[in-house]
Amino acid sequence: MGFRKDFIWGAATASYQIEGAAYEDGKGLSIWDRFSHEPGKVFDGHTGDVACDHYHRYPDDVKLMKEIGLQAYRFSLSWPRLMPEGKGAVNQKGLDFYNRLIDELLKNDIRPFVTLFHWDFPAALQSLGAWENPDSVKWFEDYTALCARTFGDRVKDFITFNEPQCFIGLGYDVGVHAPGYQLPNSSLVPMSHHILKAHGTAVRALRSLVPEVRVGYAPCGDPCMPATNSPEDMEAARKAYFTVPEKGWTFNVAWWSDPALLGCYPESGLKHLEKYLPHGWQEDLKTIHQPLDFYGQNIYNGRYYKAADNEQGFEMLPLPVGFPKTAIQWPITPDALYWGPTFLYERYKTPFIMTENGLSAHDVVSLDGKVHDPNRQDFLNRYLLAYKRAAEDGADIRGYFHWSLMDNYEWAHGYKERFGLIHVDYETQQRTLKDSAYWYRSVIESNGEVL
Ligand code: GBH
Q1: Contact assessment for residue 46 and residue 415, using Cβ atoms and an 8 Å cutoff
Q2: Active site residues
Q3: How many angstroms separate the alpha carbon of residue 357 from the centre of ligand 1?
Q4: Is the CB–ligand 1 distance for residue 258 below 6 Å?
Q5: Which residue among 241, 319, 376, 403 is best mutated to probe the pocket of ligand 1, counting the most ligand atoms within 8 A of its Cβ?
Q6: Ligand 1 pocket, 222 CB below 6 A?
Q7: d(CA 146, CA 90)
Q8: Closest among 192, 163, 157 to 411, alpha carbons compared
Q9: Are 219 and 256 in contact (CB under 8 A)?
C-alpha cells in the first residue's frame, strides 16, 4: 500500500513570484508589474522587480532542487516575457531563458511541469479587456501554440491555468490582487466562460503540437470536510463542496471544473449565473470539455460541514477557539488532503495530482546558520499522511508538489510570508535549505514510507 511506485514528488513556483528581471531582455509588463507599484496595494509596497532573482540564479536553484532530491519541478511561464504585447511579436530572449532552464532541469533528471498561466497577465491585453474580450481565447491559443512548439520537444507535462478562482475572484471581484478591479457578474461570468474556453482550446492545441503530451489543470477551492463519518454529514460536505453559492461563487470548485471535466455547468451555478453567460455558451461546452491526463488541485486547508435542517441541507462549523493556524492565519486541517482528493476523484474520475500544498511559517536563520522549521515538517507530515490514506482508500493519486520550492513574493502579502523549503535572504539572495527540505528528501527517497 502507500503511494504508487511511480508517484511524482516535486515542488512548485510561479514566474512573477520568483523570477525578477521584470524589465530585462525585452520582457513586456504584466498586470502584476503594474499593480505591485500602485501605492497601498501590496504589503509595505513590495514588488516582484527582483524577487528571488531566479532569472539569473536558476543554475544554482536547480542545484538546490537536486540536493532536495526533487523528481519534478512545477514552474510557470511569464506570458509577457515571451510575448511582450501578449500577442504578435515574440521575444527570443524570453524563449532562450526557458530553454536554458528546461535543459538544466533535464540535465539534472528533474521532470519539468509547465504551467502556462499563473496570474502575470500581459498588461497590453488588459487594456483590451482581458478575459472579458472573447478574443482572449485566441490570444491564449496562440501563446499556448508558441510554448508547445518551442518547449514541447522536451516538456511533456503541461498545466493550462493555475487557480482561475483566485485570479478572477481576487483580481476582478474582490480587487485585492492585480488588476484590482471590482466588476459585476455581467463581466465576471463571461470572463469565466472565456477562460474555460481558452483552457479547452489550449488542451487541443497541446495535443496536436506535442507528441506524447500529458495535460492537466490546476484549479483550487477549499475542500468541505464532513464533521463526522455519518452518511448524512458526508453527503452534506459533498454537497457544500460542489454547490455554487450566489455570493462568492468565483471561489467555488465546481463552476470551474464541471465544464472542463464533465462537459456541463453545475445546476446550482446556472440558477444564478446562466443569465450572464455569453450567447451560444452551450455550443462551447464541446470545446471546453477535453480529456485530461490529470486533474490538479492546490489545497491548503478546508472547513468542516454537517447536515442541517435548512434549505441547502448543510451548515459550516465554526473553528474552535485556539484552532491551529499557519503564519498567514490559515487553519491547519490535514484532513483536507483526504477529503479533497477523495471527493474530487469520486466526481471527476481523473488521475489526481496535488499541484500545490504547503504553509507559511516564521522562519529565521538561527545562530547555527540553519533554518529550523519543525512546524513545516509537522504540517507536511500530517497532510501527507491524510493524502496517503486517500490513495489507499482508492483515489487514483499520482503526485505531490510542495508549495513552494523557495520563499518568494506572496502576491499582496509581498515578502512577509515564507512558504519555501528553501529560505531566501532577500538582501543578499542567499539561499539556505530549511530542515524541512532535508526531511522532504527522506520522504521522497522512501516514497512516503517515513511518514
Ligand atoms: C496559491 O493560492 C497560489 O497558487 C500561489 O501562487 C500562492 O503563492 C500560494 O497559493 C500561497 O498563497 O480563508 O484562511 O481558509 C492560494 C489559494 C485559496 C489558499 C484560499 C487559501 C483560504 C484560506 N488560497 N484559501 S482561509
Answers
A1: yes
A2: 163, 356
A3: 9
A4: no
A5: 403
A6: yes
A7: 9
A8: 163
A9: yes
What number is the average pLDDT over the span 253-274?
98
Rounded-to-integer distance, Cα 109 and Cα 111, Å: 6
- Return the residue whose CA atom lies nearest to atom 7 of ligand 1: 410
Q: Which residue matches cell numbers 502575470?
A: 120
Instruction: Tell whether the model's pLDDT for residue 207 goes beyond 90.
Output: yes
- Count other C-beta atoms under 10 Å from residue 435's C-beta: 17
Is 159 close to ligand 1, i.e. is its CB under 6 Å away? no
Whether the per-residue pLDDT at 429 is higher than 90: the answer is yes
The pLDDT confidence band at residue 99, using thresholds 50, 70 and 90, is very high
Long-range contacts of 311-317 (CB under 8 A, 24+ apart): 312/239, 312/240, 312/243, 313/235, 313/236, 313/239, 314/224, 314/236, 314/237, 314/239, 314/240, 315/236, 316/224, 316/240, 317/227
Q: What is the pLDDT of residue 1?
A: 86
Determine if ligand 1 sits within 6 Å of the CB of residue 218: no
DSSP string, 205-266: HHHHHSTT-EEEEE-B-PPEEESSSSHHHHHHHHHHHH---STTGGG-HHHHHHHHHHSS--
Nearest to 167 by CA among 203, 201, 130: 130
* Tally of CB atoms within 10 A around 64: 19
Three cell numbers, residue 207: 495535443
CA 331 – CA 162 distance, rounded (Å): 22
Structure-block grid coordinates of residue 225 = 470536510
Residue 219: predicted pLDDT: 98
* CB-count exposure of residue 270 (10 Å: 0-12, 13-18, 19+): middle
**13's grid cell:** 513556483
Q: Name the residue type at position 20.
A: G
